[in-house]
Automatic annotation (TrEMBL):
Protein known as: Short-chain dehydrogenase
Compositional bias (Basic and acidic residues): 35-47
Domain of life where this protein originates: Bacteria
Annotated segments matching region Disordered: 25-47
Length: 70
């Protein structure tokens, strides 16, 4: 989605990834985090919802015919 309905500036979309890949700044020298505009940001709480994860995997398996091993 883009244009007036875009939720952010698409021209900035790559900047945080480039910063994480190339910067020596202490904030960029971490792993396993979520970032937004070169700053840490907590993930959506739904990402820690195991029931939602199971439902997503079940829906993917139903659509694809391929179930992931438990």
């Amino acid at each position: 989605m883009g244009g007036r309905a875009a939720t952010d500036d698409l021209a900035r979309g790559h900047l945080t990834q480039a910063w994480l890949a190339t910067s020596d700044a202490p904030g960029a020298r971490v792993t396993g985090g979520h970032f937004y505009h070169e700053a840490p940001r907590p993930p959506d709480p739904a990402l820690r919802d195991e029931a939602a994860q199971d439902a997503l995997l079940a829906a993917c398996a139903e659509l694809s015919g391929i179930a992931l091993p438990a």
